[in-house]
């Protein structure tokens, strides 16, 4: 199973999504018998790569936020004393 194939949510995988959707429309019965399996595998790989990049970016953003909060706490503890 894959996430909804909306192009605006998966900018890295636009070409593969379009090919996959075209395969499904061109082969309405063949899609049940593996006609589009190669594209599905490529699509899954692309989604994994995209998710990995997003995860790394979110982690970096999280580290920055934690650092800012830590600095803020230190400043507040110094002013309270």
Tell me what the structure shows.
With 81 residues, this protein is an all-alpha fold. The protein has helices spanning 14-26, 37-80. The longest helix has 44 residues, at 37-80. The model has no long low-confidence stretch (mean pLDDT 89).
Outline: rod-shaped
* Percent range of helical residues: over 70%
Contiguous uncertain segments of 5+ residues:
none
Taking the sheet with the most strands, its summary is: none
Distance between the termini: 57 Å
According to DSSP, the number of beta strands is 0
Relative strand content: under 5%
Number of helices: 2
Order of secondary-structure elements = HH
Class from secondary-structure proportions: mainly alpha
Q: Rounded to an integer, what's the Rg over CA atoms? A: 22 Å
Mean pLDDT: 89
Q: Which keywords apply here?
A:
single chain; 81 residues; 0% strand; mainly alpha
């Amino acid at each position: 199973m894959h996430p909804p194939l909306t192009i605006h949510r998966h900018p890295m995988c636009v070409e593969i999504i379009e090919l996959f959707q075209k395969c499904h429309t061109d082969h309405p019965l063949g899609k049940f018998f593996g006609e589009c399996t190669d594209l599905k595998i490529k699509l899954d790989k692309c989604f994994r790569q995209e998710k990995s990049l997003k995860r790394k970016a979110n982690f970096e953003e999280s580290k920055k936020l934690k650092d800012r909060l830590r600095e803020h706490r230190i400043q507040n503890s110094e002013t309270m004393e």
